[in-house]
Amino acid sequence: MAASSLLALIDDIATLLDDVAVMTKVAATKTAGVLGDDLALNAEQVSGVAAERELPVVWAVAKGSMLNKVILVPAALAISAFIPWAVIPLLMLGGLFLCFEGVEKLAHKYLHSKEEVEKNHAELLKAVSRSAEELSAFEKDKIKGAIRTDFVLSAEIIVITLGTVAAAPFIKQVAVLSTIAVAMTIGVYGLVAGIVKLDDFGVYLNSLKGKAHAGSRQFGKWILLAAPYLMKTLSVVGTAAMFMVGGSIIVHGIAALHHVVQHGGEHVAALGAGWFISGAVVLLLETVIGVLAGAAVLLVISGGKRVFGKKAAHS
Fold first, then answer.
1. 14: confidence class by pLDDT, cuts 50, 70, 90
2. Do residues 306 and 111 touch, judged by C-beta distance below 8 A?
C-alpha cells in the first residue's frame, strides 16, 4: 500500500514537472522578443566602463535583475490569485510598451537633437580620463540605469509569462514563473558577459605568437572585426522582435483584430500557399500592427509633452 502510494506520488511529480517544462518552453518562446532587446540593451549599458570593470558591472546588474524578479514574481502571482481579470489589460499594456519602445528606437535620431547625441558621445570619451572617484560614480550610475531598464523589461517578461500560465494551477504558476525568472537572468547576463568580453578574447588570440597559432590569430582578427556588427545585429533583431511580440499580444487581446489577421492567413492558405507562407503572412500582419500601435502611442506621448511643455513655459 505504501509502495503504491509512493509510486503515485512520483507519477504526480513527474506529470507536474512535465507540464511545467512545456509551459516554460511556451513562455520562453513568447518572451523571446523582450529577451533580444534585454540582451542588446544590457550589453550597451557597460559602454564607457573600463575593461577590467566590465564583468563586475555585469555581475552587479545581474544581482539587481534577480532582485527585480524577487519583487515581480510574487506581485504577478498576487495579481493572478486576487485580480485575474487584470492579466489581459497588463498584457496589452506590456505589448503597447514594447511597440512604443521599438518605434522610439527607430525614431531616436529624429527625436533627439544633434547636440544631445554629441553630448552623450563626449560623456563616454571623458570616461577614460576621470579620477578614481569619478569613475566609481560613473560606474554606479551605469549600474542604476541598467537595473531600472531591467525592471521594465523583466516586468514585461513576467507579465507575458503570467498570461501563458494564467489558467494553470497555482503551484504550476509558481514553478513556471520562478523557472523563467532564474533561467532568463542567468541566460541574459551570461551572454552579456560573453559579449562584452568578446573583443578582449579577440585581442588575446591576436597576441599569440608562433606559426602554430596562426589560425588562432586569424580567428582573433575575425572576432575583432565581427564584434561591432554583432552588437548592431542584436539591436536590429531585438527591435524587430519587439514589434512581432508586441503586435501579437495586441492582436490576441482584441478579438475582432485577431479574427481579421487569422482570416488573412487563411485566405493566403486557400490560394494554395503552404503553411509556412500563411504563417509568415500572419506574423507580418501582427508586426505591422505592432509598428502602427507603437507609432500611435509615440504620437500621443510626444503631443502630450508638447502641450504640457508649452503650458509650463507660459506659467
1. very low
2. no
Give residue-wise pLDDT tens across range 139-161. Answer: 777 788 778 777 877 887 787 77
Gap between the Cα atoms of 146 and 148, Å rounded: 5
- CA quadruple 262, 268, 269, 273: dihedral sign: negative
Task: Tell me if 224 sits within 8 A of 202, measured CB to CB.
Answer: yes
Give the whole-angstrom CA distance, residue 287 versus residue 251.
10
The residue among 160, 143, 192, 37 whose CA lies nearest residue 100 is 37
pTM greater than 0.90 (yes/no): no
Q: Which of 70, 244, 93, 234 is nearest to 156 (CA)?
A: 93
Task: Determine the residue type at 17.
Answer: L
Sole residue written with cell 525592471: 151
Assess contact for 174 and 77: CB atoms under 8 A.
yes
